[in-house]
Design brief:
The protein has a single domain, classed as Tetracycline Repressor, domain 2 (Orthogonal Bundle). The protein is mostly helical.
């Protein structure tokens, strides 16, 4: 993968990488056109440190994307532990939608061949997360058996197409409830 070094990586280098990914995520959330130099400055590192981890802007954007998707997928069990299954479904999809709206702000950087491969590689884990949510909902009887995670993920794609601001979020919640009504037994 672009931006990843081969062989053992020092603990401090891993910490630097994680810190850079968090700072870059926040910077891109504010402005998808944020420069690498601005990100390095915000992270409190020199440009050389940033470029050692991520030699190109695209490499950084793709690493942030992969990191964020891994984080979202990894949150499913915690969200299920903290919420009833159907509420966990709602919470997790709202988080996914918020992230996808951010991703769209990165524009052309996510339309390269390399980006499409990373996006394609993350589909299976996301669909797996949706399947875990659906299984929990099925076990407690809040959705009917046999829903396909890929179908639900495609259907829920409306969440990242609503308008911005509170009005868009309110519309997303209303439409989500319509979809959930269709999932019920």
């Amino acid at each position: 993968m672009a931006g990843r070094r081969q062989g053992p990586v020092r603990v401090d280098a891993l910490k630097n990488r994680e810190h850079l990914l968090r700072v870059a995520h926040d910077a891109f959330a504010e402005d998808g056109a944020t420069s690498l130099n601005v990100i390095a400055k915000r992270a409190g590192v020199g440009a050389g440190t940033l470029y050692r981890h991520f030699p190109t802007r695209e490499a950084l954007i793709l690493a942030v994307y992969r990191h964020d998707v891994e984080r979202l997928v990894g949150e499913v069990d915690q969200v299920l532990a903290e919420n009833a299954p159907l509420d966990a479904f709602r919470v997790w999809f709202e988080r996914l939608a918020a992230y996808v709206r951010l991703k769209h702000g990165l524009g052309e950087a996510l339309h390269t061949v390399a980006a499409q491969k990373v996006i394609s590689d993350t589909y299976v884990p996301v669909a797996g997360a949706v399947a875990r949510l659906l299984e929990a909902c099925e076990r407690d009887g809040s959705v009917r058996p046999g829903l396909d995670a890929a179908d639900v993920l495609l259907l829920m794609g409306f969440l990242w197409r609503v308008g911005p601001g509170e009005e868009g979020l309110a519309q997303a919640r209303r439409i989500m409830e319509l979809a959930i009504d269709g999932f019920r037994p």
